[in-house]
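Exercise: predict the structure of this protein bound to adenosine-5'-triphosphate.
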Amino acid sequence: MISVSNLSYAFKIGKKDKENVVPVLHDVHLHVAKGEIVAIVGRSGSGKSTLLNLISGFIRPEIGEITIGGTKVSGLTESKWAEFRLNHLGFIFQSFQLIPSMTAYENVEFPLVLKGVNEKDRKEKTLEMLKRVGLEPYQNHYPGELSGGQQQRVSIARALVLNPPLILADEPTGSLDSENERELLNFIKELNEDYGITFLMITHDHEVASIAHRKVEIVDGYLKEGRMLHEVQR
Ligand SMILES: Nc1ncnc2c1ncn2[C@@H]1O[C@H](COP(=O)(O)OP(=O)(O)OP(=O)(O)O)[C@@H](O)[C@H]1O
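Solution:
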């Protein structure tokens, strides 16, 4: 599903003539199979979000290659990337990233609008997703009128509405209390088992990591498991 090879990344900070190069990831190799739940763990500042942002195409690699579902995404133009993202990836963020001026219904419907789906099909699919996350009665609420757990469920419904085969999650339970966390983790397991959705998640949390089939650890920009695989292959 995901194949990352020889990926290195450095941020360039400061003015062009006095640029400071901050190396963050070093020769990362990572393979995630279809149907896997993989947790990326590591200390703060080790490079987890940078890796997820590279896999999501939000930042572009200069060195290395990223393939998702057979498409070499690291070579796509910005507009092709946006199209690929819409069709293949779902995102869940710690801070939910809902649009505050849109109701729960409108937030879930938004990817269908971007994709140009007609109104009748949009309505059917949006209501189906809201039902699946148990939020049909709250469809006209704005994010500010929902609890943290409910907001995260709206964001999951939005992530799933176009049936992506892969979900990328950055600290998905980071803003939830333990009851909502347990509920979300059960839901992730269910989506994985029933629909074969692949998950790549960043987490600090042992509970979250415990539902993963596999953990990979980033230590100072080096992916532990990835390097081992790479060394075995060589
Ligand atoms: N836009 C940026 N410009 C410059 N340096 C950055 C930028 N974003 C991140 N960094 C640096 O890259 C390193 C890795 O950051 P990253 O956010 O990937 O770590 P992380 O493991 O996700 O941390 P956390 O668990 O705290 O979210 C850090 O040293 C950070 O300061």
